[in-house]
Design a protein that fits this description.
Strand 5 (122-123) and strand 6 form a beta hairpin. The protein has 9 helices and 9 strands. The protein folds into 2 domains: 5-75, Winged helix-like DNA-binding domain superfamily/Winged helix DNA-binding domain (Arc Repressor Mutant, subunit A, Orthogonal Bundle), CATH 1.10.10; 81-192, Rossmann fold (3-Layer(aba) Sandwich). The strands form 2 sheets. It has a 7-stranded mixed beta sheet with strand order 5-6-4-3-7-8-9, sandwiched between helices. It has a two-stranded antiparallel ribbon with strand order 1-2. The chain is an alpha/beta fold and 211 residues long. The protein is globular. Pfam families: CoA_binding, Put_DNA-bind_N.
Length: 211
C-alpha cells in the first residue's frame, strides 16, 4: 500500500529541512527537534517516518544522512527525472534556471516554445526546441514529467499532446482547468490564487487592528 497523499506532501518538507541541518553540520536530531523545525507534531512526524520503516534510535534520534537517503529513495529523487518545460517566456526561463531542480533529483531535459525568435536559442544551457516537434522531443528525452508555463488558452492542447505521448505527470502554471485521462496526475500552481489567499489574511489582520 502506498503512502497517503498528505504524508507524501510532507516528505519534501522533511527532506528540505534535513538538507539544511546537514549543511549546518548537524548529524542527528530528535523527533521533537525535527518536528519543531518542520512545523508538525512529534507524533505526526514519527507516524510519517514509520511508514518508511524509520523509527530512529532511542536516546539518539534520527541520523540525518540516513534519513535523507531514505526519504530520497521514497520520493525517487536519486533518479534524475528528465523534465520538459513548455513555454519559454519569463516564467519558463526562471524555471529553467532554478537550481533547486537538480538538487532535488530533476533534470531539465528540454525547453519547448512556438516563438521563432526563441527557437534555437540557448537558455541556461538548454537549446529551445520548436513546439511543432514536441512529440519528437519527448521521445528523445524520455521525459515523463512536463511543466507548463504556457498561456491558459494553449494549455489544454499542449496537455493533450504530451499525454498522448506518454507523459503522466504534469505541473501547470496555466490558470485554467485541464482535462486529463485517469492515471495522469496534474499539479496546479496558481500564483494569483495564492496571492489572493495572502491578501485575505492581510485584510483580516487590518480589521483586527481597527477593532
Amino acid at each position: 500500500m502506498g503512502l497517503s497523499p498528505t504524508t507524501v506532501s510532507r516528505l519534501p518538507v522533511y527532506l528540505r529541512e534535513l538538507e539544511l541541518l546537514s549543511q549546518a553540520g548537524v548529524e542527528t536530531i530528535s523527533s521533537t527537534g525535527l518536528a519543531e523545525v518542520v512545523g508538525v507534531t512529534p507524533s505526526q512526524l514519527r507516524k510519517d517516518l514509520s511508514h518508511l520503516g524509520s523509527y530512529g534510535t532511542r536516546g539518539v534520534g534520527y541520523h540525518i544522512a540516513g534519513l535523507q537517503a531514505q526519504i530520497g529513495r521514497e520520493l525517487g529523487t536519486a533518479r534524475g527525472w528528465p523534465v520538459v518545460i513548455i513555454g519559454v517566456g519569463n516564467l519558463g526561463r526562471a524555471l529553467a534556471g532554478y537550481a533547486g531542480f537538480s538538487s532535488r533529483g530533476f533534470r531539465i531535459a528540454a525547453l519547448v516554445d512556438p516563438d521563432p525568435a526563441v527557437i534555437g536559442t540557448v537558455v541556461h544551457g538548454v537549446e529551445v526546441s520548436d513546439l511543432a516537434e514536441l512529440e519528437a522531443v519527448i521521445t528523445r528525452t524520455k521525459a515523463t514529467i512536463a511543466v507548463l508555463a504556457t498561456p491558459p488558452a494553449a494549455a489544454q492542447s499542449v496537455v493533450d499532446r504530451v499525454v498522448h505521448q506518454g507523459v503522466t505527470s504534469i505541473l501547470t502554471f496555466a490558470a485554467t482547468v485541464l482535462a486529463v485521462p485517469d492515471g495522469v496526475i496534474v499539479r496546479k500552481v496558481d500564483l494569483g490564487q495564492e496571492l489572493q489567499i495572502l491578501a485575505y489574511y492581510e485584510q483580516r489582520k487590518s480589521e483586527e487592528v481597527v477593532r
